């Protein structure tokens, strides 16, 4: 059981290292938006970080203290820069318990390998 738990921790670290992007600031995000490089923004289930998917396939993370305020600022910035409502960057939300679901999905593979 200890080996299985250790394997799961290792898998989680590897998984998160693949998808843990570089940390960005609000100014970096604005620059990416103006350069039209942002494909989507995914707000993590805890509401304190957003993953920004860029057009080159890379992900960047921006820490957000308040999810609602972040969305307001983002929409305001896009509006102020002439981006139409229909062209707004999609804001997605990670479903709650995503990592837990992943854990239970991978558990049989770890236990029986």
TrEMBL record:
Biological source species: Vannella robusta
**Signal peptide coordinates:** 1-16
| Keyword Signal among record annotations | yes
**Which keywords belong to this entry?**
Signal
Gene3D superfamilies, alphabetically? 3.40.1690.20
The entry's protein name is: Uncharacterized protein
């Amino acid at each position: 059981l200890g080996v299985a738990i250790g394997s799961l921790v290792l898998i989680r670290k590897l998984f998160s290292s693949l998808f843990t992007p570089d940390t960005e600031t609000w100014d970096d995000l604005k620059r990416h938006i103006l350069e039209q490089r942002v494909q989507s923004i995914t707000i993590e289930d805890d509401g304190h970080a957003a993953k920004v998917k860029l057009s080159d396939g890379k992900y960047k993370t921006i820490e957000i203290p308040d999810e609602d305020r972040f969305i307001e600022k983002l929409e305001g910035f896009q509006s102020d820069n002439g981006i139409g409502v229909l062209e707004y960057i999609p804001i997605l939300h990670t479903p709650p318990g995503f990592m837990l679901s992943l854990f239970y999905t991978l558990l049989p593979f770890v236990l029986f390998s």
